[in-house]
Amino acid sequence: MMMEAGLVFDGLLCLGLLWLAWQVVISPGQFRATVLFMVFGLLMAACWARLGTPDLALAEAAIGSGITGALLLNACKASYTQSQPASETPPGKLYRGACVVLCLLLSAGLAWLMLPMPGTGGPTADAVTTAQADHFLGNPVTSVLLDYRAYDTLLEMVVLLLAIMGARILIHQTHLPSLHPPRQSDPPMVAPLVAAATPLMLLTAFYLFWAGSHSPGGAFQAGALLGALGVMYRLTGRMAARDHASPLIRLLLIVGLGLFSLFAVWGLWIDGMPLSYPAVETLAYGLVLGIEFALMISIALTLMLMFSATPGLAMTRQPGEGGNQS
After folding, report:
1. Ranges of each domain in the chain
2. 235, CA 20 to 30 Å: which among 3, 57, 123, 127?
């Protein structure tokens, strides 16, 4: 009976994902498509959880749906602010038909590539499983991201840095008006909600960072949660935009990639192989924690600056806290 209920639930999840994906493609408005995309991300997180991959579920909920949804909503607001359309024109039938054909071809190609693949096992999976038994990290996902596949993780940080650099160039060239002007006053419940959410989000983010070495979590999930906290502070006027990034902001933006790159050079110098960990497990574990912490800070700040669409940010003081701005 429980198995039948699980199959019914999984079937409803699959149907919900297909329906939401179709609605995102055919949606006549940007805002509606963005909201549906965020709901799609939440259902996808539930699918990853059903497949027994909590790391991917956390990443999808925090990054795929949460912070990416906030960035898309920001883009919608920027397009309305810049062009101020009276009403949105829905995509034409030819455009929607082309999107449908492209999605079907992409789905068929992915199915053709994945169906012949073995469901479990295989030489690579067996090798990783064998190596994981003696690895100093208890979480296999973190082991892959920071050891077996560390080059890929390093390049992901390069992509993030290039993204924020591209955003900086666009900000200077387009001269967008302020997307989040200072608030004159807060609604009655904003201050207590922010006060209650801040310690909870901070504790959760640092728990995800700390737990990433032995259980689901890690720098990307923790960084996305800290970035969401920064988005909340930006929207409520507790964080103000700055036209120029301070030296501290610039340092924190590159500290993750910089520390990771220094570790690669250090491994090349010591062992002749970049991104190789020392034989002493205590030292190797400390290196992982240091790299993960630096990655978390850089990821969070990158997401905050991209949402704010400004080069820099600074904390502000609210009325009653003594002074106007720090």
Report:
1. 1-81+93-104, 139-319+322-326
2. 57
